[in-house]
Write a structure and sequence with these properties.
- This protein is of the alpha+beta class.
- The protein contains ten helices and 25 strands.
- The strands form seven sheets. Strands 16, 19, 20, 22, 23, 24 and 25 form a seven-stranded antiparallel sheet that branches. It has a six-stranded antiparallel sheet with strand order 1-2-3-4-6-5, with helices on one face.
- A hairpin with a 6-residue loop joins strand 14 (434-440) and strand 15.
- Helix 5 packs antiparallel against helix 7 (238-247).
């Protein structure tokens, strides 16, 4: 289990708890690993100084403590102590060893169907116990489920609230996490028990596939697909998929009650005895021994001993300050990173929705609007690949203004969400209905890209539209050796051979590239092979180019990326 060393500015003691290490951070504050004089380990969450003076932030922090105090369940980490009467504000909860569900899936792959059903039933039972206390979680997702040896634990009640309480969320700001927040939450900020059931279904979809239930990419694009498209359950066994689909019904009235979900799972043994579950829990390193942690330096924050916090009655909310919600990590474990980001190119409206297209299509409501530009490739007399097509490469002879970076919001970064600084689309736009994706597996040194016209296979194949993919490392490329330089990358990087986007029209329509196998950098002075992803850690940018003629005639029509 990975924990981070304390930094010079960190406290060495909070209340009675000796601080041993960092566990994670969220929008409200930092989470530390603490130990009592008797040796009990706790997770201590401290509200950040810069937001502790904001009444709405403090109200949310107090609401988290009240929610945790209200729920007494074997499926939730218990509140042990809190100090919320005077700054600095903090709360200590039971420390739960084990990976999060997200970490376990990334490290060991999707859950087998029977294991997923047992997890489904256990989480449904946990939610039911939470709802019995009059509390809705409002941010259930794989990152907020810890796989403890005795069974799953629900964490992060930072935006949970009692059903009778007034929400602190500002009008127009939806709580929750894109891909797991229910349509009614995204559209109307209605977060009741039915929204938790939707999040449960989406969480099990992830556990069963290893993929984001509504794809990745821009938060607005993921939210669009959540509202308008079907959950990704490709490859999931029929009975499990049917139960998930019931939970993620667009209409909250059509979702089953939790008792029906548990009955539908029809499990006959405990999750803790499941072979796959035991293996992912066992593979997690043990809780760090306090003796292995060096003695801290003298007191830095000077926290005084605090008496246990008494949870107050719910208070009327104050106006919320605009901002994004971020969760906090109760534990951190080493995990294999497998981001999957869906490429939602401008020009994809819902006027040509294809119900069979799955979760790959959508529109980013906040994305840049492309100006009018050519939507078809060079006009040909026939749809066949012809001898007068594009060159066998494009020349890396220009500065690229497109750069992708992982979001600095922990909640979005946890969903592999990033954005491109868009230096393109001034005079070009992609074909309507183009679906694309980019994925990367940590440690493999490789990445993959795929493209598919939504209308592939129906009607006459369009005239050729040639595209090339540029993959740019975080740093510049030596034009002789291809190795990374110290300076930031400014050119277009390694590129693929141009291919007709419609070349697979009759066989499913998907055109695929694999990096580094299909990529090279072409300079005026020569050509160099692409380097493995592992050779240059950082944010990699992936750009889609429309190739219109010779090796220097290409225009940017899309941008995405991933972090290595």
């Amino acid at each position: 289990m990975q924990v981070d060393e304390l930094r010079p500015q960190d406290p060495t003691r909070i209340g009675v708890w000796r601080i041993l290490a960092r566990l994670g951070a969220g929008g409200m504050g930092q989470v530390f690993l603490g130990r009592s004089p008797g040796g009990r380990l706790v997770a201590v969450k401290v509200i950040r100084d810069e937001i502790s003076d904001h009444p709405e932030s403090l109200a949310r922090f107090r609401r988290e403590a009240a929610a945790m105090e209200a729920v007494r369940s074997p499926y939730t980490a218990q509140l042990i102590e809190a100090s919320l009467d005077a700054s600095p504000y903090w709360l200590a909860t039971e420390y739960v060893p084990g990976p999060t569900l997200r970490e376990a899936v990334r490290a060991s792959g999707p859950f087998p169907p029977e294991s997923a059903l047992r997890l489904f039933a256990a989480l449904a039972e946990g939610l039911a116990s939470v709802h019995l206390h009059g509390v809705t979680h409002r941010d259930l997702k794989p990152q907020n489920v810890i796989l403890a040896p005795q069974g799953p634990q629900l964490i992060d009640f930072g935006i949970a609230r009692g059903q009778e309480w007034t929400a602190l969320t500002q009008t127009g700001m939806a709580p929750g996490t894109p891909g797991y927040a229910a349509p009614e939450v995204l559209l109307r900020n209605e977060a009741g028990p039915a929204a938790d059931i939707f999040a449960l279904g989406a969480t099990i979809a992830y556990a069963s596939t290893g993929r984001p239930p509504y794809g990745g990419g821009e938060a607005s694009a993921v939210s669009y697909r959540t509202v308008h498209e079907e959950v990704d359950l490709a490859g999931v066994r029929d009975d499990l998929a049917a139960l998930v689909r019931r939970c993620v019904a667009k209409d909250p009235a059509e979702r089953p009650q939790l008792a029906a979900v548990i009955a539908g799972c029809a499990v006959e043994s405990a999750l803790a005895s499941d072979a796959h579950y035991r293996s992912v829990v066992r593979d997690t390193d043990a809780v760090p021994e306090p003796e292995a942690v060096p003695e801290p330096a003298p007191e830095r924050w000077g926290y005084s001993e605090a008496t246990p916090y008494t949870v107050p009655a719910p208070q009327p909310p104050t106006a919320a300050r605009p901002g994004r919600r971020k969760g906090w990590l109760a534990v951190c474990a080493v995990a294999v990173v497998v981001p999957l980001a869906l490429w939602l190119l401008p020009g994809q409206g819902d006027d040509d929705q294809d119900p069979e297209a799955g979760a790959s299509a959508g529109t980013s409501a906040s994305g840049p609007a492309a100006k009018d530009g050519p939507k078809d490739g060079p006009k040909k007399d026939s749809a066949d690949d012809s001898a007068d097509g594009p060159p066998d490469h494009i020349v890396n002879d220009r500065v690229s203004q497109d750069r992708w970076a992982l979001s600095d919001d922990p909640q979005e970064a946890a969903q592999d969400i990033g954005t491109c600084d868009l230096g393109y689309l001034a005079d070009s736009s992609p074909p309507s209905g183009l679906q694309s994706s980019v994925s990367y597996t940590s440690g493999s040194g490789s990445a993959s890209m795929s493209f598919r016209p939504k209308a592939a296979g129906s009607g006459k194949r369009p005239a050729p539209y040639y595209v090339s993919v540029g993959v740019r490392p975080p740093h510049g490329t030596d034009r002789t050796t291809g190795r990374p330089l110290k300076s930031a990358g400014k050119d277009i990087g390694f590129t693929s051979k141009p291919v007709d986007l419609y070349s697979k029209w009759s066989s499913g329509g998907t055109v695929k590239f694999r990096y580094p196998d299909d990529f090279r950098a072409h300079f005026e002075t020569g050509t160099v092979d692409a380097i493995p992803v592992n050779d240059d850690p950082g944010d990699w940018t992936v750009v889609l180019y429309h190739v219109e003629g010779g090796p220097k005639e290409y225009r940017t029509i899309g941008c995405n990326g991933f972090r290595a």
